[in-house]
């Protein structure tokens, strides 16, 4: 039997006393993860502000942490420093039975029939957005997608339809998230953080009011016997009761809704930004996707059934997920029970980092991992099918993204509509094949000029 070594003996460096590798984190905006991986291999240690981290890379590590030994780690302890002060305790910051109970109650809003009900609002928002772009081109791509995805979120997740209220929530939400990275968390007036926390209080009060109003609507629907007919997520949350009679408390719903706005918008906006940029530089892929749309959709109005048949678009979007990791290149979990992995014992108190961004570029999984090849996901290659933890841009295991279908539907509706009606150019011209650059380091600078496809031809 091989002797397990203490985690301190892993390759890697704890950096300076107390600060650890904190300065390096800010200097590289990405922790130099790729360099450390090349230098130390698929398991290495680091330290940030006195906390010890073990970075794990590869499908086996992904499966162990996210699924097989999920009860040895805590999502709460992994994410709380970054998220709790902004979002409270949504289910992403819950563990074990508490997390499973919340997730069971939330799940109906993100599957099957409920998802189908979201199609029309998504399509309307996408059409409005593209019409505006035609009038105000050139547009700042990431900002526009942030706004689109946030508006879709506000309408579908909160059920807010009145334009003035949509704008009010948008503003409060943006002020709230501006405080997320404040170094000094002083909740006093005239500071960024104080304004952010004030926005959080106002947003909570606003949501409490729409929850109270929605209860009225719910009672009405109960009387009419169509309790499950709600067209937005909030209504389904209010109606949800599990087999033991548990329901979601108002305070929990409020935390979930604020977090959902976040989870649903920056990720979707990042995917759409890079899909649009990659397509701008790849005329053969624009052509391939347009041809597929012509075959599947033809002259019919786009519908959910069509989206499911867009295989080439699915492969294309998987390549965006693999190379751009829209939710970030790493996931955090705090260790609560010792983990044995790769010859080391990782004790409670450490944080493990699941480095999805590095798994996605392993040559053991993907052929020519640095090159953009959506066809790697098509038969016969199907490189992601070698292992269910090879492509984990939406996470894996118990905390796998609950909004995955919602996101994929929104992204496909946008791309289908864009490709069918418009053409576009992106400036400045993006340097492809630099997928180690983190999306947020570049995306703010990208602009698009769009034109009407029919006028061009
Ligand atoms: C391209 C779009 C998206 C990507 C790449 C993405 C990615 C992820 C990832 C990686 C996680 C796992 C986090 C972890 O394990 O710590 C996650 C969780 C989550 N996502 Fe998404 N997401 C996207 C869109 C959405 C949308 C549209 C929604 C809601 C409408 C959403 C709601 C959530 C929620 C609530 C969780 C927490 C799940 C749990 O803890 O059980 N996401 N997402």
Automatic annotation (TrEMBL):
Family: Belongs to the cytochrome P450 family.
The protein's required cofactors: heme
InterPro entries assigned: Cyt_P450, Cyt_P450_CS, Cyt_P450_E_grp-I, Cyt_P450_sf
Key words, A-Z: Heme, Iron, Metal-binding, Monooxygenase, Oxidoreductase
Protein name per its UniProtKB record: Cytochrome P450
Pfam families, sorted: p450
Organism from which the protein derives: Nostoc favosum CHAB5714
PANTHER family xref list: CYTOCHROME P450 26, LANOSTEROL 14-ALPHA DEMETHYLASE
